[in-house]
Each structure stands twice: as structure tokens, then as C-alpha cells.
User: Fold this.
Amino acid sequence: MVRIILIRHGETNWNIQGRYQGQEDTRLSERGFAQAGMLAQGLKDVHIDVCLSSPLKRSFLTCKACADLHHLPVHADARLTEINHGEWEGELACEIEARYPEEFKLWHMQPQLVQMPGGENLEDVRKRARAAFDEYAAKYDGKTLLVAAHDAVNKAIICDLLGLDMSHFWHIKQDNACINVLECTDGMWRLVLLNSTTHLGYLFSGIEQAGL
Assistant:
């Protein structure tokens, strides 16, 4: 069996603003750094063998805060990088809605049908994330992995591992610095924990972010 502790990065200033980040290499906000520290404390007594992260700073630094307490290095995996939003990156949600009203509506109603202008679609994200997770399951049998990624990546891989297609994307919530736990035994995946934030001091955040 392989156990994966899947986390989302801490808050960024663009999260606060409702600005679409995608593959822009944004940094953690002050609160985001604090969340990373609380996440690290929440996992300090949990055995971890390997730490892997998206190469984007917001995820890598969140992962590093946890890895440092276990005296482990963080290995970057580009397959965990956030969805490429193309022309939407750097734009506020309200600006995107004004420029791309039909696509923006479809993104929130039937996200599996949206091809980001100049970017990716959810199937692109699902394929690369699933390839990474299948490799982890084969390579790290008997190990516990800490994997740090992003909102869209986490939602896509959780849906996929549960046998749900990308039309269920918005049925999964991923708060900043949340914890998910997934286990794989003989090719069978199960979800053990979803979007846990008790280490941050609350059972649920109530926060609905406008941008990913």
C-alpha cells in the first residue's frame, strides 16, 4: 500500500484578490506562510517518507515547511503544476466574466467542456496528475508520501481516483493548506480524508475563492 497525504498550498495575495493564477509563480501571502506553519505542525508527528511538490513557489514552500520538520528534501514534479489558464492568468474573475461570458459560465456549470484560451483543459490536468500518482503507487509501495499541489490539480486527481469524470470537478472543495489522504492497494484507490482544515483552527472555512 502507498499512502499519499495530498495538500494544497497556503493562501496567496491573488487568492485574496480573486485573480486567476494558473501557472503564474505567485508567492504566499503573510497568512499563507502562517497556514504553511500550522500545516507543518499538524503533520509533524505523522510519519512521512518522501515529499513531492509542484515546482511553483506557493506549493513548494508550503511543502518545504512540512518537510523541514521531518528533515526531508522536497522533490519537484512538474506534473503537479496548476492548470494553465492561458489568457485568463493574471485576470480577476470579474474581468474574465466580462471578456469571456459564455466560457466563464460554462467553466462553472460544465467545466469538463472548457478549453482555456491558450491554456489547458481539465482532461490535460487529469492525465498528467494521474500519470504522477500511478508512478508514485508503483515506485513507493509501503511508503507515506507528502504531495503538495493546487486547487484544480487536487480536484481533478481526487475525482479521477474515485472514478468520477471531470463534470464533478466543482463537487470537491480544496481550501488553502488543507489535508487530503488517499491510499492505494493493488491498484485500488480509496479516499481516507478530504479537505481537512482542523489544523488551521476550523472545521470548515466558509471561504469561496473567485479565482484558482
Observations:
- Residues 122-139 form the longest helix (18 residues).
- The mean pLDDT is 97.
- The first strand starts at residue 2 and ends at 8.
